[in-house]
Please model this.
Amino acid sequence: MSNDLVVRGRAVLPDGTRRVDIGVRDGRITAISDTPLTAPTVVALTPDEVLLPGLVDTHVHVNDPGRTQWEGFATATRAAAAGGVTTIVDMPLNSIPPTVDPAALATKRAVAAGQVAVDVGFWGGAVPGNLGRLRALHDDGVLGFKCFLAPSGVDEFGHLDPDGLLAAMTEVASFGGLLLVHAEDPGVLDAHAHTPPGRDHAAFVASRPDDAETVAIRRVVDGVRRTGARAHVLHLSSAAALPLLADARDEGLPVTVETCPHYLTLTEPVPDGATQFKCCPPIRGAANADALWQGLRDGVVDAVVSDHSPSTRELKLAGGGDFGVAWGGIAGLQVSLPAVWTEARRRGVALDDVVRWMAHTPSRIAGLAKGQIHVGADADLVAFAPDEPWTVDADALEHRNKVTAYDGARLHGVVRRTWLRGVVVHPRPDAGPHGRLLTRGTHT
Model:
């Protein structure tokens, strides 16, 4: 079969990294060859570049519609492409309406249509008001359901109490779905809410202690054991939960776990009043980050995704640096890969492992056939220069609001080119929106 495109050079493949020719036709990989292939367009990577599969970021708050001034599909997907991410999955909250029924999903898809630079899937929400009716969203193509065990931060997306969590798990298990859980326990949070944190990040961390996560995660594991539901623990911050997650894995329970770049690369002490570092659960200490890295190596933590949760500058810096007032969320979609790779490189972790954690595994958890370079896969590819240093300039990022905890960070690893189904979507600004809206059952 003739090819439209050949990309030649070192590539991260499922069986390791080696020099190959990748043949592409009609947006799919047709050949992986150790001998030269031909095509009208042949792109030879430079000696300092390596070809990666497009990353899959399954934890992105696009906030569109309703809070488009916080991000939006156009800016979020351009930032993704610039960061080597070719598939994102949009979270159901912070948009208005939240994605808690088929009508809201249809609204969100209509808003996204025609303006996405990369492929986009959607999570649904499990909230007190839609329990018993989740199957309709599942049938309409959401990839799974997100719930909170503590207040979400927005009034229109309520959290589940223990009975609600079990009800959601039972319902999701009945049709083979996936429940994603923001696992912080409201009782523990309430018990530590007596002292407002003010400008002191350490006080903010003390208000959301490790126990908030461990108590909630234990409830999730118990629920999985009782109902047989598949559950995914979102944005693990506390390494204190690793032993109980390892026990769940050893027991054979269908529980998967993600962590985020900011928990692996940013640690205390956070400067006083630097609310661009505020997120929930919080960034913790260096020893905690060390343990999370070990959890990834051991396979207890499955994936690394951004939890990109931006807001306007006014909300992110509200209260003059008061961690109790400012919006909680890290804007990091575009810099996730270089941030994680920089720290991995320092720790002697291979790029192949980073790709597995940030591409193939999140894709597998979401039920998508993305995140690997193999024959038949979509030609979602990234030319990455792993050794090139650069400094993050928030103003130069594609994010709508130019506030990020990574501003000024010295990183290694530059995304030089991103292809989506064989079409360049970065850095060509005139490429146009080439992304597709994914549904459960497609690309599986």
Notes: The mean pLDDT is 97. Residues 210-227 form the longest helix (18 residues). The radius of gyration is 21 Å. The CA atoms of residues 210 and 376 lie 44 Å apart.
